[in-house]
Amino acid sequence: MRITKLELFHISIPFKKPYKLSKKYGTQTHAHAVIFKIHTDAGIVGLGESDTLNPFTAETPSSVMVVTRDIIAPLLINQDPTQIAMLEAALDQGVSGNLSARGAVNMALYDIVGKAYNVPVYLLLGGLKHTQLPLLGPIGSGTPDEDADAIEALYEEGYRTVMIKMGALPIADEIKRMISAKQRFGDRMKLIPDANQGWETSEALEFVNGVKDHAPDLLEQPIRSWDIDGLKRIRNRMACPLAVDESLMTAQDAATIIRERAADVFSIKVSKNGGLTKSVQIAQTAGLFDIKCLMNSMLEFGITQAASLHLGLTLPNLVDMGHAYMSVLRMADDITDFHRNISHAVVTPPEGSGLGIALNEDKLKKYTQDYIKIQ
After folding, report:
1. Residue range 261-282: mean pLDDT, rounded
2. What gap in Å lies between CA 169 and CA 22, rounded to an integer?
3. Mean pLDDT across the stretch 78-93?
């Protein structure tokens, strides 16, 4: 079997309601992705998805399409898609960075192999450790009363973990939000404030001190990604575990964070981390050092969500919390049927071979803003 061509579709779909993030990322109204179709001479088509959000990622949809056309595709055309390790090695040699584009290719290769051998991707990753996973529900930045309404709605839907976006408001207001949420929901919900790099180290330390009697269950990425010393200072002062997200892009980042003892939890995102192969490496390395993993998400559609789910279902070192497999529920629409795996705030394994999801071609066409074919 050989790869014959690649098709790339830049899509954009609005959220059901705007998503207020930290001051670094602002308020998001639409989710963008590049959908990959990798075609083979056996008639099997592998699906991949690149999820970029500049400045979270250095990449943009346009850069993903250009680097794939000019650099990645020539390394793939006429190659055997089942030889994932060999293709990953060639791409490591020939492509610098561009992890989101790499991630889309890698998940599409796994999709092809699973379809070729008529097995789900989770079997290619070692088999199921979990038969289902609880969902994490995110809320945007708001007032304590707005937070309470949003969290209560999630609780009624069956969620028992909520990620509270912070980093946009004055730190005193963020402290009030955390204390209010903990007082109202701390006995029935696990609470994860995520500042998305929105704070200075001094602000994060002020937050930690201000909520010490109402500590969250996990704090994620409070400061800039490169500030490992700052993360260590925060972790040493905290009464709860610290998770890294933007600080954790590569396996080399994982090694640095482990060596410096800068975090307790790794936030894994298959698109951000360069695909399933690289995400497995990061997660397994974490496990060797008793670091837990949170399966998190970018602003993802069903292809990446499915790939991430296949990985999460195999990992023994997941945090005992909800995980981010609800992304498609926040969109006004999706181009896949991933939502059928979700019920009552729980996600179960996709059925079928490969990634186990179907692409809606009419919706793909409807939401496509740009398209290229490479052969």
Report:
1. 97
2. 8
3. 98
- pLDDT 10s digits, 104-156: 999 999 999 999 999 999 999 999 999 999 999 999 889 999 999 999 999 99
Residue that the structure tokens 């937050």 belong to = 207
3-state SS of 55-104? Answer: CCCCCCHHHHHHHHHHHHHHHHCCCCCCCHHHHHHHHHHHCCCCHHHHHH
Q: Are residues 35 and 170 in the same domain?
A: no
Do 90 and 179 have their domain in common? no
> Is the confidence at residue 193, as pLDDT, over 80?
yes
Residue-level pLDDT at 25:
67
Describe the crossing of helices 201-210 and 228-237 by its angle, rounded to 10 degrees. Answer: 10
- CATH number reported for the structural domain that contains residue 233 in this entry: 3.20.20.120
Residues of the chain with pLDDT > 90, as a percent, come to 92
Based on the domain organization, do 312 and 294 belong to the same domain? yes
User: Would residue 352 count as lying in a domain?
Assistant: no
Q: How far apart are CA 209 and CA 200, in angstroms?
A: 14
pTM for the whole thing? 0.95
| CATH number for the domain that contains residue 68 | 3.30.390.10
User: Is the residue at 157 inside a domain?
Assistant: yes
If we measure between CA atoms, which residue out of 221, 277, 219 comes closest to residue 248? 221
Buried b (16+ CB within 10 A) or exposed e, 254-293: beebbeeebbbbbbbbbbbbbbbbbbbebbbebbeeebbb
Domain-located, residue 64: yes
Asked if residue 297 lies in contact with residue 338, where contact means CB atoms within 8 angstroms, the answer is no
Residue whose tokens read 């999801």: 357
* Residue 93, domain extent: 3-118+359-374
Tokens for 349, please give them: 């394994």
Same domain, residue pair 276 and 148: yes
